[in-house]
Amino acid sequence: CEKEYLETSPNSEVPNELVFATTDGALVGLNGIYRFMWMSEDHDKFGQKAIDIAMDYMGTDMFTPVRGYGWYVADYNLSSITSATATSRSGYAWRHYYRVIFNANNLIANIDNATGPQADKDYIKGNALTIRAYAYFYLINLYQHTYKGHENAPGVPLYTEPNAAEGKGRGTVQEVYTQILADLSAAEALLDGKARKVTPSHINVNVTRGLHARVALQMEDYATAAVKANAARQGRTLMNATTYANGFSAHNTEWMWGLQIPNDQATIYASFYSHMDNTAAGYAGLGSTKLVAREIYDAMKDGDVRKTLVQAPLANPTANDYENYTSFKFRKPLTSSWQGDYVLMRAAEMYLIEAEALARLGRDAEAVTVLEALVKTRQANYAAPATAGQDLINEILMQRRIELWGEGFQLLDMKRLNRDLNRTAGDPKEGYHNAGLAIVLNRSIKDNAFLWRIPQTEIDSNDKMSASDQNP
Amino acid sequence: QSRTITGKVTGAGDGAPLPGVSVVVKGTTTGTATNADGSFSVNVPANATTLVFRYIGYVAQEVAIGANTSINVALELDSKQLSEVVIQVPYGTVAKTAFTGAESTITTKSIERQQVTSVTKVLEGLVAGVQTTNGGGGPGSNADIRVRGIGSINASSSPLYVVDGIPYDGTLQSISTDDIATVTVLKDAAASALYGSRAANGVVMITTKRGSKSRAGVSVNLRRGISERAIKEYERVTPQQYYELSWEAMRNNRLAAGLSPEAANKFASDNIGTSNGLVYNPFNVGRTEIIDPATGKLNPNAALLYQDSWSDVLFQQANRTDLNVNVSGAGDKSDYYLSVGYIDEEGIAKFSGYDRVNARASINTQVNDWLKTGINLTGNLSENQGNYATGTATSNPFYYSRNMGPIYPVWQRDGEGRFIQDPIRGGNALDWGGGTNAPMGIRPYAPNSNLLGTLALDERSMRRSEATANTYAEIKFLKDFTFKTTFGGNYYNGFATTYQNSQFGDAAADKGRSTKADTRTLSYTFNQVLTWNKKFGEHSITALAGHENYSWESRNVSSTKTGFPFPGTTELASAANITGGTSTFNEHRIEGYFSQVSYSLKDKYLASASFRRDGTSRFFEDARWGNFYSIGAGWRISEEDFLSADWIDELKLRGSYGEQGNEMTTSVYQWQGLYGLGYNNALNPGAIAENLVAKDLQWETNANFNIGADFRFFNKVDGTVEYFQRTSDNLLFQVQLPYSSAGDLRQWANIGTMTNKGWEIQLGYNAISTSDFDWRIDFNATTFKNEITKLPNGDPIVSGTKRLAEGKDIYAFWAREYMGVDPKNGDALYRADPKLYNPSSTAYQIIGSDTVTNNINNGVFGYHGTAIPDFTGGLSNSFRYKAFDLAVLATFQIGGTFYDSNYLTLMHRGAYGTHMHKDLLNRWTPENPNTDVPRLQNAITNQDGYSSRWLFDASYLNIKNINFGYTLPASLISKVGVSNVRAFASVENALILTKNPGMDPQRTFNGTADFTYPVMRTYTIGLNANF
Fold first, then answer.
1. Taking CB atoms and an 8 Å limit, are A66 and B436 in contact across chains?
2. Among the partner residues A157, A336, A338, nearest to B740 by beta-carbon distance
3. Helix axes A173-191 and A205-218, enclosed angle (nearest 10)
4. How confident is the model at residue B519 (pLDDT cuts 50, 70, 90)?
5. How far apart are alpha carbons A167 and A158 in whole angstroms?
6. I need a surface site. Which of A232, A266, B3, B629 has the fewest CB within 10 A?
7. Cα distance between residue B890 and residue B989, in whole Å
8. Peptide bond into B439 cis (omega under 30)
9. What pLDDT, in 10s, does the model give residues B186-225?
């Protein structure tokens, strides 16, 4: 018969050519990446925030008194990252970030040939480059020790082209960071002056600079960190005490980047608020309450709005009381719905990066100014208790732990600061870790047991990798 | 004076009643013919001595009358007239003697013995060369079938199903087994190549019944049965043992953390009954007093306050009802067959079941001497309730009840063990072990769930309506030519509801969640076939040429809402929030041209050849056309003069070779590089890469060589022996690319070669054949070896529990080798990977000549058996003694390996809340150092996982069917106008023996466990009456 009889085309998928034919099509491909960042594949695997929770759980400041429904218990006791299966925490993170990278590479490789305004091409490419840098930044920090002192240690396979069939070896940490910095610089140039098309999920130049600051801090390149953090926070206004107490679930003037999740796209139990909102009927509310470690709570001063977002310890709590040290930081806006935005970057982090970087550069006075500018919005009468030297740095780091609690920075900070894991065991009612649940109380951050295992499938299917490339 | 003699005539081979047999008093013209049920009643003169029974195709038999008033006769098939046997082949039928291909046919007799809903469950053990799963015991479930080995790695290895000449896309369980006349399995190229494009994995041709003159009448079948599980639950520990073992797991965890033995013991006693341990305390002593810290034994004063059985409350004895009525007959020019049926099959999991109403009408008419036409219409409505989650989901009642620790109750208890009243629903309050009301605590296994509560309130159903219409016109012209055109279509509609209730469990926080999904699939096949049939002298030629279109399209729409204000309705109209909605459309088309020539010389030398060219929409235009062919030859040695021995009734050698195709990849748009839609970012449409482009993708081809012999000796033994060799080339492969480069996507490509080589034998023996007693034995066995002979670059591919490698088979298990338990400390040991071995590390030690490690990640992988068995087969014994008949079918598998992950799940190291297998009582302790069960230790890492420890011999024996019947005497029932009544009792899966009690090795071909419905044992009584 006619040739057309055998020509069928899908209606619930689109051919690649259509996606890359125009900038409007490519924008669909870009939005898909952002959506993927919160898609769920299991109740503890729902994109970036799922990995953020695991990274906090591996530290000291956030913990749960009971096993509850069992989710994240294996992250808390540091065992989920020791498995090389595809569905373990480490297997999931690997697959997640490389999926993001593959999609970003598709856009980067094809966008120049798309039909559409050059400004849109630059915009899409700038977004894709930053997203790629973001994914590599997390990969290199999860699967290897921190940058400093490990520049020549094995990195992670580095791809800048969407060449699906050809695997690569681990290379070095330095190579990965070099690429991250190159991508961020290129993206910054492309995005400069361009308004974002979707708020808050798309990346604008502030986000690119903010990520650059985050990366530079991790690399202990304080000069760059200070400059980029300062530039990144321009135009953003810090929350006041009222907005701070609103629950971190709707983007506001302080948010630089986040994911907006309407009710029909929420992932219900498999979501950040299920695990982090202690007041809702998700996993946190139904069992594994997320507590603020006593060290952090005690560091907060009266009059600090952040302290009001933690259940003050009661000597004899009743069954109707929230557990002592329960966090109320993250609360979804409506009880009847799982709608709620995910924060990925906010100006407070930039203040903290800038302050820390300045202090480390010896520019103590400037550092104090930046620190106080942030903390005063949380605690009106705040004055830095130390104004110079290591004491100032320590104060900034403590403010960082208070401010960014539950947002996924624990593991990254422990690594770059060479801060060992030291969990104080005791009664959770007193704000201490439950030893039977934590299992691991002390561990050197240099211990290879902190390295996430590469999924076995990667080693089996990648010509350029063998069993000896696995993390020890 | 005359007298009346009654009796029944059956075929000696299968015991089927023979209608229309002439029964004559020898030397006279006095006589009669048998009725539809084979019975006769004849008046004979007083001086008559002998009755003669004659029937075409059978050896005539003379029987002395003597003083008998009742004479039953079994007629032997006349091998000289075997050519009367015709078999179903693509686009027609052919005399068995003239056929050069490999096939097996089973008939009504074998089908109706087995009380199963789906015809796919009939074939097990009856057809040589066919391997089947048992399909599990779910209501309305199907078995899977593989013909002659495993044909493909990532594309489908299932055979093509053809019903009445049209490729079938409906559900197989919707075909009423009462309507089926024959099931023919086409196994080699000569048999199936005419379906070239899709016949690579064999063809199962189902032919439905037609009316005939000799069997006009009404037939009624009534069957009632009850089902229970045929494979018992694994043996598990008692609540007391469970507490002691869990205590030990906690104590050992603390010991490993560096506590002193005293402190660890005290910690475990203080905590095992609390929210950090087992949470629930079913004993009459305090939470911290359950286990004596000094001994690790249960407090002697501790008595259980309650013990509920989840299996008892979630499962039931299931009823099965199967009714069928059909009316059939024929006139001079037309025949008709009309039937209606009803099946109501409960599942043993409560609230699950399958029911079906089906109807069929088949009418054929010879309009005039050149035109014949007919139509075959079916329609059925069915409903599946309780399509529970499968796999390891806790909403799967089988997995849930198996793994729920024995101390967790179904109903809430107070501190004294008394039931609590449910203030809202009344009755005893259920225990949910979590959620907003969890007075007993959060159960560590499957918290916030109670399947007894939710299964009753939830709905997981599928309502199907299906129809097929099949019509043809056949025109004869120019004497030797026939033109036949057939149009056949399948319509399928499936309406699925998944509703989670608003009161309890997962969706309570959302006030209920309901998804409705509707799928509508329409497919049709339209073909035109021209046949030329010519005989001249000793030559006989049949030639055929045709064209065929196949078209399939499927549309789906689904929507999800939450917020159900009124319990009891699942309808979306009542809910407030839309949380999902989408629709999809897919289509697939194939077009083919084909021809075939068959030649026979003196009915002795046979040859055939066929060719088919197909194009598919699945592949890119440059790669979509494939050419397929077959050649076959046969030699009926028994027709040769030099082989005129009397005992050789039939002996035929035949051979064939050919190539068929396979295109069954996951997506119908497989070649295209695609972005998947639906990844919307809030209000902005989004998509991500989903399918990698594969423009070179083409047909997987299957080269099929067959050589075989059909024989019949002494009029007693008949059978077939065959050797086959299948080579699957250009395998449609879903290549596992590195996660890193491909972003967790796989790439379809044609790579690699795989062979299946094997023998099969089918034997029948008429051990005894007398008027009162028949005994026939049928036996078949198959053995095959699968081997991957080529992979790209020769690189092995690890795929789940297997590793594909050249020289190995597709289901070869690839696992770390378990080396038992370190007697010093109870660690699990694995053979160490020499590449990772580090003599200075404490993770390694050398025991004897083995280097072992206590870290499973350092274990070395190796091959440990294969899921492909050495032999599979079946043995049937059929007996008839006067009016009684008995048939017993046993099926078996010898060899093969099975990965029992259910057992693994129960053999954990003390994960709080999960039930334990009794074998854990033999775990390592300082007092029991020599064991192969490692010590208990909660949250131990790097010790456990998939390894050779969980691989078992998969051999089994199943008494698959016992059917015992009694045919009422004609003299009794003829008075009420009934011609034949048979009452029977039958048992399916009467006895299953396996190596590890509890495991069900016949669930999958690849030797991995299924976590849901085990196979059922069903007891049935039934009645068949013909009017």
1. no
2. A157
3. 160
4. very high
5. 9
6. B3
7. 9
8. no
9. 998 888 878 867 888 999 999 999 988 766 789 999 999 9
Mutate to test the interface with A, among B511, B549, B666, B741 (most CBs of A within 10 A): B741
> Where does residue A218 rank: exposed (0-12), middle (13-18), buried (19+ CB within 10 A)?
buried
Q: How far is B756 from B27, CA to CA, in rounded Å?
A: 59
Give start and end residues of each alpha helix (H) in B446-501: 451-457
> Is B686 within 8 Å of A287 when comparing Cβ atoms?
no
At B82, is the pLDDT very low, low, confident or very high (cuts 50, 70, 90)? very low
The correct CATH number of B3-77 out of 2.60.120.620, 3.40.50.2000, 2.60.40.1120, 3.40.50.620 is 2.60.40.1120
Looking up tokens 């748009």, which residue turns up?
A: B669
Write out chain B residues lying below 8 Å of A85, CB-based.
945
Asked whether the beta carbons of residue A460 and residue B798 sit closer than 8 angstroms, the reply is yes
What is chain B's alpha carbon radius of gyration, rounded to the nearest angstrom? Answer: 32
Q: Nearest to residue B903, comparing CAs of B802, B996, B991?
A: B996
Confidence of residue B79 (pLDDT cuts 50, 70, 90): low
pLDDT class for B567, splitting at 50, 70, 90?
confident
Contact between chains at B740 and A39 (C-beta distance less than 8 A): no
pLDDT value of position A421: 97
Pick B584's closest partner by Cβ from A12, A98, A281: A12
CB atoms A453 and B253 under 8 Å: no
Mean pLDDT of chain A: 94
pLDDT band for position B388 (50/70/90)? confident
* Closest approach of A284 to chain B, Cα-based (Å): 11
Say which DSSP state A152 is in: T
What pLDDT, on the 0 to 100 scale, is given for residue B68? 82
Closest-CA residue of A relative to B684 is: A31
Name chain A contacts of B589, Cβ cutoff 8 Å.
Answer: 5-6, 8
The answer to whether A280 and A331 are in contact (CB under 8 A) is yes
DSSP states of B672-694: S-EEEE---BTTB--EEEEE---
DSSP A106-119: HHHHHGGGSBS-HH
Q: Residue holding tokens 């309506």?
A: B465
B952-990 exposure pattern, b = at least 16 Cβ within 10 A, e = fewer = bbbbbebbbbbbebebbbbeebbeeebbbbbebebbbbb
Q: Cα(B966)–Cα(A335) distance, rounded to whole angstroms?
A: 67
Contact assignment for B434 to A286 by CB distance below 8 Å = yes
User: Any idea where the domains of chain A sit in the sequence?
Assistant: 18-469
Burial environment of residue B783 by CB neighbours within 10 A (0 to 12, 13 to 18, 19 or more): middle
Judging by DSSP bridges, how do beta strands B980-994 and B897-899 pair with one another? unpaired
Q: What is the mean pLDDT of residues B253-259?
A: 88
Handedness of CA B495, B498, B503, B509 (dihedral sign): negative
Cβ-contact A423, A60 below 8 angstroms: yes
**Among A68, A85, A336, whose Cβ lies nearest the Cβ of B563?**
A336
Closest-CA residue in chain B for A163? B741
Mean pLDDT of B752-774: 91
**Among all residues of chain A, which has the CA nearest to that of B449?**
A69
> A189 Cβ partners below 8 Å, 6+ apart?
none
Dist. CA A341–CA A276, nearest whole Å: 13
Measure B86 CA to nearest chain A CA, in Å: 34
CATH number for A18-469 (one of 1.25.40.390, 1.10.275.10, 3.40.50.720, 3.30.70.580): it is 1.25.40.390
Closest Cα in chain A, distance from residue B447 (Å): 6
The pLDDT of residue B83: 46
ipTM for this model: 0.94
- Pick from B677, B692, B945: which is nearest to A164 by CB? B692
